[in-house]
Prior knowledge:
Blueprint (H helix, E strand, L loop, with lengths): L12 E3 L4 E3 L2 H5 L13 H6 L5 E6 L3 H14 L7 E5 L17 E6 L6 H13 L5 E4 L5 E6 L5 E3 L1
Parallel strand pairs: 3-4, 3-5, 5-6
Antiparallel strand pairs: 1-2, 6-7, 7-8
Amino acid sequence: MTASNAKSPAHATTRNRASIHIANPRRLYSSPGKRLPPFSSSIAWKRERGAIPLLTIITGHRAMAEAQKRLDDEKRFPGDRRALFCILPFEHPPASYDWSVSCGLYAVIEVAGIPETDLSMKALAFQLLDAGAGPVAWLVSNGELMLLKRDELGATWSL
């Protein structure tokens, strides 16, 4: 770090030879008044390093334990750190989080333990679509696969 950028603000960028590095990716994604979902802080870092464009949102009463297990697996197998995931804490409203980390990604909602209600899962899917995610898939309570997609005109399609 040179003396000229030693006191740069948290949202400053620096240029390397091949890419632009963002000093604080949390500042890039988060919007005022809302916080990022838990375990989403590494999504920007993984996307810069060629992660698979699939975001898994873990929800349910065992979501925190499942996310911690995935982090432990990443530490044990350091060559495979490309899986993108975050969680929606159990019984938290999806609208209380900033889902802009899902912009440009396909999204899958995965349930760990006791599931959220179908209404909450659908609200989460619409939050993800509003944030710019591609198709969003999840299993509803009767075992049926639900897939929502938004077209170029902004209409939402259930497939």
